Amino acid sequence: MDDRGEPAVPAMRVSDRERDAALEVLAAALAEGRLDTSEHEVRSRSALRARTADELASLTADLPAPTPTRSEQDRGDLREWLAEWRYWLGGAVIMSGIWGVRCAREGELTYYWPVTPLGVWAAVLIAIAVWPRDDEGPAKG
């Protein structure tokens, strides 16, 4: 039981991947001058010995997450763009299904109306891919 009278939740154990991520944050902080070499060494040793997420989080809590590199940002953007195409495909299936059921009930093929919303949606997705990107991000102020 904790001090609030609730049952204590066991600490979540960390994986090697989580330890490696914490070491990357510490290395970036060293490179940026946020940590000196002795503090980096102490925190790195502690990160390698950490067993729970709480232990690991306390080592990097006062440090900002490293900014992603340009290639990491590009990969993330591509993943998001491809996910949008999967949504487009799902919309195409649903709209085509609605169109098909309507045609079956009327007993004849009618105008394929999903072409309009799907065409506009696809045009927007293509425009996102070819539009020049502002690398500075949103304006501050």
Cα(first) to Cα(last) distance is 48 Å
**Beta fraction of the residues?**
under 5%
Compute the average pLDDT.
85
The radius of gyration is: 25 Å
Based on secondary structure, the structural category is mainly alpha
What is the subunit arrangement here?
Answer: single chain
What's the short version?
The chain is 65% helix and 0% strand. With 141 residues, it is mainly α.
Describe this structure in words.
By secondary structure, the protein is mostly helical. It is elongated. Helix 1 (about 15-30) packs antiparallel against helix 2 (about 35-50). The chain is built from five helices and no strands. The relative contact order is 0.08. Helices cover about 65% and strands about 0% of the residues. It has helices at about 15-30, 35-50, 55-60, 70-105, 115-130.
Spell out the blueprint of helices and strands.
Layout: H1 16-32, H2 37-49, H3 53-60, H4 70-106, H5 115-130
